[in-house]
Amino acid sequence: MRTKWSLTIHHEDRGERSIISECQFNHFADVHAAMKRNKGKIFVVAIPKTAKPMEIQAFHNLKQLGYAVEAR
Predict the structure, then answer these.
(1) Domain span at residue 47?
(2) How high is the mean pLDDT of the chain?
């Protein structure tokens, strides 16, 4: 069972070699902070099975805030 949030940051073109960074975090707040530091990039997030409903809703709200984000 996945217990950490996984974040992959891509360049805007999202090509095959576009990965900038891959990180794992224990808390959604840390994922969001990393996204804020890299605004304008494309984010792919693996949501842990242990995520709380409020964290999942906050993740889905990121699109409304202008982030290019998708779940994996």
Answers:
(1) 5-71
(2) 91
Distance of CA 31 to the CA centre of its chain: 6
Q: Is the pTM of this model over 0.90?
A: no
Look at the chain and report how many structural domains it folds into. Answer: 1
Q: What distance in Å separates the CA atoms of residue 38 and residue 9, rounded to the nearest whole number?
A: 8
Give the other-Cβ count within 10 Å of 49's Cβ.
7
Residues 5/28, Cβ–Cβ less than 8 Å = yes
Q: Alpha-carbon distance 18 to 28, whole Å? A: 23
For residue 43, what pLDDT band results from cuts at 50, 70 and 90?
A: very high
- Cα–Cα distance list, 43 to 1, 21, 51 (Å): 22, 10, 18
